[in-house]
Amino acid sequence: MQPYRFGIVGTGMIANKFAEAAKVLGDRMIVQAVSSRTLAKAQDFSDRHGIPDVYGSYEDMALATDIDVAYIATPHNFHLAHMELYAAHHKHILCEKPIVVNEAEATRLLQLSERYKIFIMEAYWSIFVPAFAKFQELFSLRGSDRWDFLRSEIGFSHPGDRGLRKVDPALAGGALLDVGVYNLMIAAEVFGYGFQITDVHTIKNEQGIDVFDAFTLDHGNGRKSYNICTVKGKMTNELIVFGPEGCLILKNFLGSQSVVEDRLGETPVEYQFPFLANGYEYEINHVCDCLDQGFLQSDQLPLAKSVKIIRAADVIRQRIGLKYGFEN
Ligand SMILES: NC(=O)c1ccc[n+]([C@@H]2O[C@H](COP(=O)([O-])OP(=O)(O)OC[C@H]3O[C@@H](n4cnc5c(N)ncnc54)[C@H](OP(=O)(O)O)[C@@H]3O)[C@@H](O)[C@H]2O)c1
User: Fold this and answer.
1) How distant, in Å, are the alpha carbons of 33, 299, 315 from that of 50?
2) How is 95-147 classified by DSSP, letter by letter?
3) For site-directed labelling of 307, which of 8, 180, 197, 298 has its Cα 20 to 30 A away?
4) Are 32 and 61 within 8 A, CB to CB?
């Protein structure tokens, strides 16, 4: 079978990470092309990663006939428009998180998927890494009803210009959409998607953008998750589930390589799963597996899950009074 041919949309931080990971998946996929709003940036990216085709606009790459999948790595508020562009040219889509920014866009996303019959998946790479599979295995093995609480925290500090996108209201900046969606996704993956949002707290900057959020989810049956996120500070980025018999820790849950099982009265055991590249390779491989099987959605991460997460983010944003200018 021929490798799937991917085209990258945008040349920022995560696009570089994608291109690096692709280098270990040569028999499954290749990065055929890269597109940028600026030809020189696309050329520079192509030189760095050895990518054959270069486009100075996203629209030009959408016309290419030798691309199977568009990987969309632009700021959140452009995701839907860029998905619409590539869907209209019958490209499958892997789109960065959050795949859309609100409920209204989620409705249009579902219509897009229905209309064009292409594969679409959100790029929540965290749930495809081997360490997360081990975490889930231990979670079930010990009895999935033995765990009462979950705590997740995620935060990065971004000195200099790198942090600007993350708090730019025009680019849907803020902790919730930048990293809080990871808290929501991981809590839902572990304790289930049927949660209610209970307590919500935020700290905003002078522009009214959330730089820190804390929220509690009630997952039913006495289970609760406590989640915090920030774009203004480095955190441990750990996910912990705990119950009377001990705890399970997924270290750096954004892209984990290690799970620790700490059972009452026993010596903690650490399981390690080093990445082949940077961790993104597992998600890309999953997309290829789905395409092999002719799926239009991922069996692990269908659009219904993505929509549930963005609806939850909408509820949290309503509670903290955060509406972007472009939503008026
Ligand atoms: N999965 C993950 O772990 C992860 C990590 C980080 C980010 N992300 C997601 O990936 C997306 C991109 O994040 P990033 O950190 O890579 O951002 P970034 O470094 O700022 O890059 C974004 C790219 O989007 C393009 N772009 C198009 N219109 C733009 C505009 N008006 N302003 C700025 N850039 C624009 C630019 O590429 P050109 O100039 O070449 O057109 C830019 O390089 C976000 O949605 C983010 O949530 C995911």
Assistant:
1) 10, 32, 43
2) EPSSSSSSHHHHHHHHHHHHHH---EEE--GGGGSHHHHHHHHHHHHT-GGG-
3) 8
4) no
pTM above 0.90, yes or no: yes
Rounded average pLDDT over 192-206: 97
DSSP state of 302: -
Q: Is the distance from the beta carbon of residue 73 to the nearest atom of ligand 1 less than 6 Å? A: yes
pLDDT value for 281: 98
Three-state DSSP at 320 gives: helix
Spatial separation of the C-alpha atoms in residues 316 and 314, rounded to whole Å:
5
The matching CATH number, chosen from 1.20.1260.10, 3.40.50.720, 3.20.20.70, 3.40.1050.10, for 4-125 is: 3.40.50.720
Give the residue, out of 124, 165, 185, 287, with the most ligand 1 atoms within 8 A of its beta carbon, to mutate for a pocket test.
Answer: 165
The secondary structure of 63-91 as a DSSP string is: H-SS-SEEEE-S-GGGHHHHHHHHHHTT-
- Letter for the amino acid at 178? D
Q: What is the CATH number of domain 130-274+309-327?
A: 3.30.360.10
Q: What is residue 37's predicted lDDT score, i.e. its pLDDT?
A: 98
Confidence of residue 143 (pLDDT cuts 50, 70, 90): confident
**132 Cα to the center of ligand 1, angstroms:** 25
Q: Which of 9, 11, 14 to mutate to test the pocket of ligand 1 (most atoms within 8 A of CB)?
A: 14
- Around Cβ 123, how many Cβ atoms within 10 Å? 23
| pLDDT tens profile 212-221 | 999 999 999 9
Question: Which strand (E) or helix (H) includes residue 14?
Answer: helix 13-22
Distance of CA 224 to the CA centre of its chain: 22
The neighbour count for residue 165, using CB atoms within 10 Å, is 18
Range list for CATH 3.40.50.720 in the chain: 4-125
Give the residue-averaged pLDDT of 249-254. Answer: 97
